[in-house]
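Posting for a labmate who doesn't have an account.
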Amino acid sequence: MFDKDGITEIGLKKLTQEYHKDKRHFCLAIWDKKTEGAALVYSIYEQTCGQPFKVKIRLDYDILLSEIDLNNIQKFCLALSEQFDGAYIMVNNNYTPEKKVFPDRLSAAWMIYLPKVQLSHNMVPQAFDVISPTDHEGHGAGSLVVTLPHFFDEKNTDDIKAVNRVDTKLHELGLLPLYADI
């Protein structure tokens, strides 16, 4: 199902076949059987709250914290953003709602990709880094806001405070949408 470039043609074919069985509600999990180190859950479901379809993709990898490379995670997020135009991408958004400043909104967590928004580090100085790539035509494609230089630890109060400062700034800029609006 997977190779060094991601999902294989066989994996995509399986997803497509399952999707055509029931387009109104579709959910399929696939994984790397050899290592069980990569998994993909792909869901499409009809909603009744105004948006006809919503796609949520969740990727789970078993990896040691010592092996996580910030640059590789950033590159991965930016590559995903190229494939899923208009998608919000959150990395490590697993801390509890009661610790969030805005429990009903998306959160920066370790990283958040905001589509169609060009930000600079000067606009969000609370963040560790802000990366704003351009598309193939040179137009702003979105911004990846990196909260911390290390993997976010939801038990570390300093990490939580850092995320909350970034979330507050993004909210002030009107860039932290409600979960219900996406």
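Reply:
Got it, the structure tokens are right above this. The helical segments are 9-21, 70-83, 157-172.
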